[in-house]
């Protein structure tokens, strides 16, 4: 027993000397235990900080490796005035001096490169940020000494520029409609599917049937874009009427409001639309009822304004 105590005391004395403490400053055993406990806590905290620092350095090293590979093997792409397509996509959403200077030439550059842009534009549109890349960017933002270029997702900027480029090309980009439809139909996609759907709505007659099909998409932003574009189809929107009525009766109030507006602007199939709008007018959803009231007016029908009805009900309930 005495040998065990002596070895423990020798160990404590050794630890104290290693970390620079004077063992003679311990007045009793309790002080010694408190001091050693604090030393242990400090050691654990220091170890955790070192591990955290190593992790950040490893993540940043991974980011640098990805960037090095990307710059070492750049993809082949068309150019205009000696600058590659990605430069022109980047100037569309950039406040750098060069970008501000060249932004007015964006449309001219895209038109000049023409259909040669399409493969690169589809790749940019299809970009989906990964979880690990978001973590890398978040770490870079926290590291004040990291360059600004590491603190943003440049591919997101290129994707936005690609959407603008598709708008410039218009029907000239029709050869990639099938690829864009494939992106939209992949339900696992989020931002890229929304971008592809937005581009498809701008193709005109060639993509009208595709836009009508997008009314059945469960993703709200894709469905909203399709509803908005269908109102421009005129009589070609007849196949969309049953789908719009289904959306009007659905649980998404915002999409239902948009559907009511579109039905009123199209003024097609009154035999179907008027009963559906009348039911929406009498539903308990006030905002949807307001849009249904306006659309019924476009069909030439007069009903009490839901706002007036609501006000009268409120006033009646306030009376003693």
Task: Kindly describe this structure.
With 320 residues, this protein is an all-alpha fold. The protein folds into 3 domains: 8-54; 74-200, no CATH class; 226-320. Helix content is 67%, strand content 1%. It has a two-stranded antiparallel sheet with strand order 1-2. α6 packs across α8 (154-169) and α10 (191-200) packs parallel to α12. The longest helix has 44 residues, at 29-72. It is globular and about 65 Å long.
Please describe the biggest sheet, giving its number of strands, its sense, and whether it closes into a barrel: 2 strands, antiparallel
Shape: globular
Low-confidence stretches: 312-319
Average pLDDT, to the nearest integer?
A: 78
Order of helices and strands: HHEEHHHHHHHHHHHHHHH
In short:
This protein is an all-alpha fold.
Keywords:
single chain, 320 residues, mainly alpha, two-stranded antiparallel sheet, 67% helix
Outline the fold blueprint:
Elements: H1 2-18, H2 29-72, E1 79-80, E2 83-84, H3 85-91, H4 97-102, H5 106-113, H6 118-125, H7 131-142, H8 154-169, H9 177-185, H10 191-200, H11 208-213, H12 220-230, H13 241-248, H14 253-266, H15 270-281, H16 286-298, H17 306-318
Antiparallel strand pairs: 1-2
Helix pairs in contact: 2-7, 3-5, 3-8, 6-8, 8-10, 9-10, 10-12, 12-14, 13-14, 13-15, 14-16, 15-16
């Amino acid at each position: 027993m005495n040998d065990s105590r002596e070895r423990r005391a020798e160990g404590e004395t050794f630890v104290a000397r290693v970390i620079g403490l004077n063992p003679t400053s311990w007045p009793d055993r309790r002080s010694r235990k408190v001091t050693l406990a604090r030393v242990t806590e400090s050691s654990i905290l220091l170890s955790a900080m070192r591990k955290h620092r190593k992790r950040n350095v490893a993540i940043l090293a991974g980011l640098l490796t990805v960037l090095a590979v990307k710059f070492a093997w750049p993809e082949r792409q068309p150019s205009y005035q000696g600058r590659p397509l990605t430069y022109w996509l980047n100037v569309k959403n950039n406040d750098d001096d060069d970008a501000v200077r060249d932004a007015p030439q964006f449309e001219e550059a895209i038109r000049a490169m023409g259909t040669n842009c399409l493969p690169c534009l589809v790749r940019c549109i299809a970009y989906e940020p990964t979880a690990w890349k978001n973590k890398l960017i978040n770490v870079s933002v926290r590291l004040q000494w990291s360059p600004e270029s590491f603190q943003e997702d440049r591919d997101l900027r290129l994707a936005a520029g690609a959407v603008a480029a598709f708008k410039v090309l218009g029907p000239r980009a029709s050869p990639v409609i099938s690829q864009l439809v494939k992106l939209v139909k992949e339900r696992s996609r989020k931002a890229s599917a929304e971008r592809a759907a937005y581009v498809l709505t701008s193709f005109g007659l060639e993509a009208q049937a595709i836009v009508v099909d997008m009314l059945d998409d469960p993703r709200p932003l894709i469905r909203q874009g399709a509803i908005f574009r269908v109102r421009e189809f005129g009589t070609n929107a007849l196949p969309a009427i049953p789908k719009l009525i289904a959306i009007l009766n659905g649980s998404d109030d915002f999409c239902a409001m948009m559907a009511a507006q579109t039905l009123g602007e199209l003024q097609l199939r009154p035999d179907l639309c008027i009963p559906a709008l009348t039911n929406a007018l009498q539903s308990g959803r006030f905002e949807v009822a307001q849009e249904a009231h306006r659309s019924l007016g476009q069909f030439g029908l007069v009903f009490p304004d839901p706002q007036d009805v609501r006000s009268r009900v409120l006033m009646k309930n306030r009376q003693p």
